[in-house]
Amino acid sequence: MVNKIWQERLEKSQEIIKERKNKKQKIRDYAWKFFVILFVFCFFWPQYWKRLIYPSLYGKPTSQKLEISRYDHFEDLPENTPPIYLKYDSYTYELTPRTKYSVTGRIGYVEPYDGVWNKFYRGHTQKHYINLVPIDFVIVIGDMAKPEIYNLFEFFHEERSGGAKCKGVTYKTSFLNGSLSPEEIERYENCKPHDKDEELNNYHPIPANENIRKALHSILPNDVVYLEGILVDVNSNGLHLNTGTRKLQHHKYVVAGFNPGMCFVLYTTKVIFNNHVYE
Predict the structure, then answer these.
(1) Residue 10 CA to chain centroid, in angstroms?
(2) What confidence score (pLDDT) does residue 198 get?
(3) Quick count: other Cβ atoms within 10 Å of Cβ 76?
(4) Buried (b) or exposed (e) across 156-172, using 16+ Cβ within 10 A?
(5) Which residues contact 100 (CB under 8 A, 6 or more apart)?
(6) How far apart are CA 206 and CA 118, in angstroms?
């Protein structure tokens, strides 16, 4: 009888030990999967974790409420304004100041350049550019930045040039594309009247310091952001960037039969968004 009781106790304790081992193994398996997913997420979408960490490290809290600009603010500088010399890594860039600039707008598209993939994909030919301009933005102001109008558009960015298309509309890119459906025609007619070139622009922001660089890498589409700085030309280290100093300006050269619009090359000295200011 005694032996039977001890045998039952032994079997029960062995079952408990086995159950605990199984639980520990499950925890290890879930933990491994969790860290793999976390690593992949942080690798491909680093701006999300940066957004959680960077404000406390590089920004200062602010209660300033941002209001979308109706118009951009421009203040032209004298032609004899001294150049700005900016050093990143082992490169020194000469920036020619053109116009003081500030705007509060809604982010339509974010294109980072200095991530691992872009450094691998573009770094062998564009390292000087990536070093100076780590990210591009498409920004809208005025009516296009209102949520009900903003959501009618799909913003895009290709080869450092950005724009907006009506969401849910198939644009004809070749003779193979068919006609628009009635639903697409309706979407296009609702959207197109709000497509205003003077309320959209592409930006090549040049961070003035590391705080600004961190701020730029924390910005996401749909954020309302205040940017302040100086529109500059860049002609050094093999780079030739000519900034626009007003909306609706175009380059003199021709691409695919037309003169492309001029982006804003902005030496950025101040950023405000998400209740934090970076300077």
Answers:
(1) 62
(2) 92
(3) 13
(4) ebeeeebbbebeebeee
(5) 73, 74, 75, 76, 77, 229, 230, 231
(6) 17
pLDDT digits (tens, 9 = 90+) for 82-130: 999 998 877 889 999 999 999 999 999 998 876 666 655 555 456 777 7
Q: What's the CA gap between 277 and 62, in Å, rounded? A: 6
| Res 124: pLDDT | 47
> CA-based Rg of the chain, rounded to a whole angstrom?
26
Distance CA 56, CA 58 (A): 6
**Distance between CA 189 and CA 169 in Å, rounded?**
10
Burial string for 114-137 (b: 16+ CB within 10 Å, else e) reads bbeebeeeebeebbbbbbbbbbbb
Compute the distance between CA of residue 267 and CA of residue 279 in angstroms, rounded to an integer: 12
pLDDT value of position 213: 93
Instruction: Please give the torsion angle defined by the CA atoms of residues 258, 262, 263 and 264, in that order, rounded to the nearest 10 degrees.
Output: 180
Which of these, 60, 42, 68, lies nearest to 274 by C-alpha position? 60
Which residues of the chain fall below pLDDT 50?
124, 175
CA distances from 89 to 28, 53, 140 (A): 42, 24, 32
Which residue in 101, 96, 95 sits closest to 76, CA to CA?
Answer: 101
Q: Look at the alpha carbons of 102, 105, 109, 112 in this order and tell me if their dihedral is positive or negative.
A: positive
Query: What is d(CA 225, CA 203) in angstroms, rounded to the nearest whole number?
Result: 13
Query: How far is residue 130's CA from residue 251's CA, in Å, rounded to a whole number?
Result: 22
Give the number of other Cβ atoms within 10 Å of residue 200's Cβ: 23
